[in-house]
Write a structure and sequence with these properties.
362 residues, seven-stranded mixed β-sheet, 12 helices
Length: 362
């Protein structure tokens, strides 16, 4: 959905832009102009598409998935960073086709089907007919995977990849415990670890037991019906805590071997920055993290980390390879057309659909 909005020259666009490179272009997008509930999301028919930088790629969206971060940002999480930048476009995951590319892009060409994810602090997200990502945030979509399926994978899988591969550096024969394995990041962590030759135990709700076992977990403990500390046996080389409350932190750390890695998705940097402002909040968060790292290194002999998603070309290539082989899947529970984005956020807010929800583009 391109629309001409003038006749000025647009520098910085590669040959992939072709005839459209001489005009300012707009597209339909979901815009967040203020924080709040699903009602603040506005589908606008004409939002300007910025000039492409040399290493950027313009992707025609076919499907984008809704991540917990989208709901939190819409409600005001990260306000200290994002409020001065309103209006925003939400969305991190995308699957679609290359529509244009910057002058330094070398690995992609127009028409190729790709999928990938933006970093957590991106201001112009993927809830748009056309999204802009850097070349290293994209990889080719396997033909055997649909756009809907592909859009559910990258952000969650890259979050798990960073924790397991970049931080814990898991290797064949090690044991991993995933606290909260039923969500997208937990499922990705299980599958990535199994592919690396690790054995995995996990906790989850009763409805997710079959799903995590199918993903490759050797043991699945229903934390609503069993005592996790009694049900799980042995010690682990790494613990990924997707829940991140004090109780799961205590349990996870006590299950670690000496020299093991505890990683939580619920770091305090964003919430402290929102509460106290960037100037005070970020240094406070750094001090809290450092204190915990020293404390646990001294008391338990383990490494403690807050972990976040970051773009990783090597990780994304491995995610593509595993997805193509059928070894990495994030089940999609429900889809909505992009024009029903408010309804989609509503069902996620009210926890009516526990699994992945994907927005489709006509």
């Amino acid at each position: 959905m391109w629309r001409l909005a003038g006749r000025r020259r647009r520098p910085g666009l590669g040959v992939g832009f072709r005839a459209a490179s001489t005009a300012a272009m707009t597209c339909r997008a979901v815009v967040l102009s203020r924080f709040g509930g699903p009602e603040v999301l506005e589908v606008r028919p004409s939002v300007e598409i910025p000039n492409l930088k040399p290493k950027e790629v313009l992707v025609r969206a076919r499907a984008v998935s809704i991540n917990p971060l989208d709901l939190r940002m819409r409600s005001g999480y990260g306000r200290s960073i994002f409020e001065p930048l309103l209006p925003l476009i939400l969305g991190r995951d995308i699957s679609g086709e290359v529509a244009a590319f910057g002058s330094s892009v070398s690995s992609l060409t127009v028409g190729q089907e790709v999928f990938g994810a933006l970093h957590p602090t991106a201001v112009r997200g993927t809830y748009a007919d056309y999204a802009i990502l850097s070349e290293d945030e994209l990889t080719l979509k396997p033909p055997s995977v649909t756009h809907v399926e592909a859009s559910a994978i990258p952000f969650a899988a890259l979050t798990a990849w960073r924790a397991l591969k970049s931080t814990a550096r898991i290797s064949e024969g090690q044991r991993l415990l995933v606290l909260g394995g039923g969500g997208a990041v937990g499922l990705a962590a299980i599958q990535l670890s199994v592919a690396a030759g690790c054995s995995v135990s996990t906790t989850c709700g009763s409805k997710s037991i079959d799903r995590v076992l199918e993903a490759g977990a050797e043991q699945a403990v229903d934390y609503t019906a069993e005592d996790t500390e009694l049900a799980i046996k042995g010690q682990f080389d790494a613990v990924l805590d997707t829940i991140g409350v004090p109780e799961t932190e205590r349990i996870g750390i006590n299950f670690l071997k000496k020299g093991g890695h505890y990683m939580t998705l619920q770091g305090e940097a964003g919430s402290l920055a929102d509460r106290y402002g960037l100037a005070i909040g970020l240094p406070t968060a750094t001090a809290i993290l450092l204190k915990k790292q020293i404390q646990y290194r001294y008391s338990h002999g383990i490494e403690y980390w807050w972990t976040y998603m970051r773009a990783d070309a090597e990780g994304l290539d491995e995610i593509r390879r595993l997805s193509e082989a059928g070894m990495l899947k994030i089940p999609v529970e429900k889809t909505f057309p992009i024009i029903q984005v408010r309804e989609a956020h509503e069902v996620k807010d009210r926890k009516l659909v526990p699994g992945k929800v994907v927005l489709e583009f006509d």
